[in-house]
Amino acid sequence: MPIEHLVDQERRLVEVIFLGAVSRQEIEAFRHEVESLAPHALAYDALVDLRHGSLDLTTAEIRDVANGAEMKGWPRSRCALVAPYGTSYTDLKLFELWSSRGPRQYRVFRSLGEACGWLGLDRAGLCLEETVHG
């Protein structure tokens, strides 16, 4: 699966990396995996990195995924999405808009630094940094 993740219990953070083009089915499979294997992590904030990946979804699929996220009974949390490049950034801004009434607050950023700032995170020790530089 082109989605990798790490649940950081100490920081109460789920780090997610998209590697390559990610489909709706892969996003839904990932969501199901986290919900079933690490349900405590649903209350954690999330940092999703698309610097090495992209969305392979139609506009209708983006709306469907956003509606699904909006209707989930998850605890209140935040999710920062890092997408520095054109269409992924635009697609995620649509997702941000369409999921805005759900329990999870989504924000799209062009840089990892901005995303970490919004989440109140220190970038040191993030697996995202290790993946990019390691």
- The number of distinct structural domains comes to 1
- Uncertain runs: none
Largest beta-sheet characterization: 5 strands, mixed
Number of helices: 5
- The total beta strand count reads 7
Strand content: 25-35%
Helix content: 40-55%
**Rough outline:** globular
What fold name goes in the CATH topology slot? Answer: Transcription Regulator spoIIAA
Mind telling me the C-alpha Rg? Answer: 14 Å
Alpha-beta content class: alpha/beta
> What is the CA-CA span between the terminal residues?
21 Å
CATH class: Alpha Beta
Q: What's the average pLDDT?
A: 88
CATH architecture: 2-Layer Sandwich
Strand order of the largest sheet: 1-2-4-6-7
Order of helices and strands: EEEHEEHEHEHH
Describe this structure in words.
This protein is of the alpha/beta class and 134 residues long. It has a single domain (3-126), classed as Transcription Regulator spoIIAA (2-Layer Sandwich). Helices cover 41% and strands 28% of the residues. The protein has helices spanning 24-37, 59-71, 86-98, 112-119, 127-133, and strands at 3-8, 13-18, 20-23, 45-49, 53-56, 77-82, 104-109. The strands form two sheets. Strands 1-2-4-6-7 form a five-stranded mixed β-sheet, sandwiched between helices. A two-stranded parallel sheet has the order 3-5. Helix 2 packs across helix 3 (86-98). The longest helix is centred in the N-terminal third of the chain and has 14 residues, at 24-37. The protein starts with a strand and ends with a helix.
